[in-house]
Structures are given as structure tokens and as C-alpha cells.
């Protein structure tokens, strides 16, 4: 890996962890194992997962199911309310913010990322850009901008009028981002 790529990953990780997110880097071959380890640690036995190419290529669903975790890949709306875990792939990451970016017309990815107590976002290492401005360059160069663009930075947070902060009211209580190494 180049020094530039290493620096982007380290910046991404540091900035995500500064807002109580969790970050780890893995090979494609170990992706399923790392997802299982997170859900086992969190005591989660039923999840919703939006299958993307990287998840399919690495037989992630089979790996998770072999570990005794129920995986719902369809009828997400029916299962998202009761499944405590969720997995989907993001299109980009922003190193300076520790943020992943969903760019999609598929509502299931959005549901998974907002309804799961524990959300795992997958991002390819080569899709991490240095700055917030870089994402807008990418978006402005798209032939057609998707119906939904979402920015996810750590667990959801909100505060009431008295500035009492609460985590997880409008989204996940725990967010893990797995950065998959380019091979």
C-alpha cells in the first residue's frame, strides 16, 4: 500500500473513532470473519444485509450463517425493525471526517444503516477520498445523481433543548466501518 493510501486510512480511522465510531481494516478473504466477530461481540444473532458485489464474491452471507447468525437479504422492511444488526457497503469514505457516503437509489441500504442498533458499513480502501470537497467533485461529475446520498459519521447523536446529548435515537447506537484492503 502506498504512503498516501496509508495516511488516508489512518486519518479516516482517527476521525471516525473521535466520534465514537469503530474502524478496522481487513483483507477480502477475512471480511466475513470480521463481520461475524463484531456481531458475536455485540451479542447479535439476526441481521439485515444488503448484498453488494464484494460481499457476494467473498461468500460473506454463508460465513455469517455458518456462525449461527440469521441473515435477511430480502424483505428488509419486514426484518429491519427486529434485527439488531445491519451490513451494507458504502460508495465512498471521507478521511478528514471519518465519514462513509451512501450513493444509491435502493432504499434497503438506507433502512439498514438507520434502523440497526449495530451497523457495519463496508468501504473499499481505494474509495476513501481526502476531503469533503472531493466528494462533491465526484458527485458533480456523475452523469445522474442518485435519489439518495447519505453521510454516516459514527453513531447517531442528538441533543434536547437543554443540550443533553443522547446516542442512538435516530439511528445506530454502534457503528463499525470495515475498510477492505485493495488487493
Structure description:
The protein is of the alpha/beta class. It has one domain: 3-Layer(aba) Sandwich (Rossmann fold). The chain is 33% helix and 29% strand. It contains 7 helices and 12 strands. The protein has helices spanning 3-17, 31-42, 53-57, 60-66, 76-79, 107-115, 132-140; strands at residues 22-26, 46-49, 70-72, 85-89, 92-94, 99-104, 118-124, 128-129, 148-152, 157-159, 165-167, 174-180. The strands form 3 sheets. Strands 1-12-7-4-2-3 form a 6-stranded parallel beta sheet, with helices on both faces. A 4-stranded mixed beta sheet has the order 8-5-6-9. Strands 10-11 form a two-stranded antiparallel ribbon. A hairpin with a 4-residue loop joins strand 5 (92-94) and strand 6. Helix 2 crosses helix 4 (60-66). The longest helix is centred in the first third of the chain and has 15 residues, at 3-17. The radius of gyration is 16 Å and the shape is globular. The termini are close together.
List the SSEs and their pairings.
Elements: H1 3-17, E1 22-26, H2 31-42, E2 46-49, H3 53-57, H4 60-66, E3 70-72, H5 76-79, E4 85-89, E5 92-94, E6 99-104, H6 107-115, E7 118-124, E8 128-129, H7 132-140, E9 148-152, E10 157-159, E11 165-167, E12 174-180
Parallel strand pairs: 1-12, 2-3, 2-4, 4-7, 5-8, 7-12
Antiparallel strand pairs: 5-6, 6-9, 10-11
